[in-house]
Amino acid sequence: MRLDKFLVECGLGSRTEVKKILKSGRVTVNQAVETSAKTQIDEKKDHIAYQGKRVIYEKMVYYLLNKPKGVVSATVDRKYQTVLDLLDDTARQKEVFPVGRLDRDTHGLLLLTNNGALTHELLSPKKHVDKVYQAEVAGIMTQEDVRHFARGIELKDFTCQPATLEILAVDELSQTSRVQICLAEGKFHQVKRMVAACGKQVTDLQRIKMGPLVLDETLASGDYRRLTESELASLEVFGVAL
């Protein structure tokens, strides 16, 4: 691989920016300063450093985002801010994309990666990957609603697979509920439509879990981080090279 291509893919900057960095003498290859962008390197064996710190080649990257309300789960949108707008230049240069989508007014866990094979596995209906949400609801959710979810709610255009509804809290005075919902599908507005089919309305919706990944409570809304080693290990069950 060419040295400039390697440095670009590692997030040091654009091809033009990387060439300037090389000319400044801040990059070493096996402890020797290298200024030529055309230099061929072995990304797996050679020791590449920038300002004395080793640069590790990553083909695939994984970010856990606490998506805020008002942001769309897309790579480009002419009207609204996208989840990619929340990333720094280094992350965006890896050409990541959201795994699935959350509605614009839904917040919580969203995985961003450039691993298309893993994305397919996580979203495939055949895999039945659970998604867990917590919702604030206008109206009192009941045990009949729990049974309704378990049977599979019939909507206008499709019948939902059986899902789990857990009632976390009920406020009789304000006529509101807080619930947790686990389902293996991801249809458009599905959680909201399922609750609406029970005669209530979702007023706030947060995803807290997707497959083995759990929302990091230390992440502020709009913040993100790389997956930890243990989180990456938990994804190996899908049989995809990470």
UniProtKB/TrEMBL annotation:
One GO cellular component term of this record is: cytosol
Domain RNA-binding S4 positions: 1-61
Q: Matching InterPro entries, A to Z?
A: PsdUridine_s_RsuA/RluB/E/F_cat (IPR042092), PsdUridine_synth_cat_dom_sf (IPR020103), PsdUridine_synth_RsuA/RluA (IPR006145), PsdUridine_synth_RsuA/RluB/E/F (IPR000748), PsdUridine_synth_RsuA/RluB_CS (IPR018496), RsuA_PseudoU_synthase (IPR050343), S4_RNA-bd (IPR002942), S4_RNA-bd_sf (IPR036986)
Which example biological process does GO assign this protein? enzyme-directed rRNA pseudouridine synthesis
The Enzyme Commission number assigned here is 5.4.99.-
Question: What SMART domains does this protein's entry cite?
Answer: S4 (SM00363)
Q: Has keyword Transit peptide?
A: no
The family assignment reads:
Belongs to the pseudouridine synthase RsuA family.
What is the official name of this protein in its record?
Pseudouridine synthase
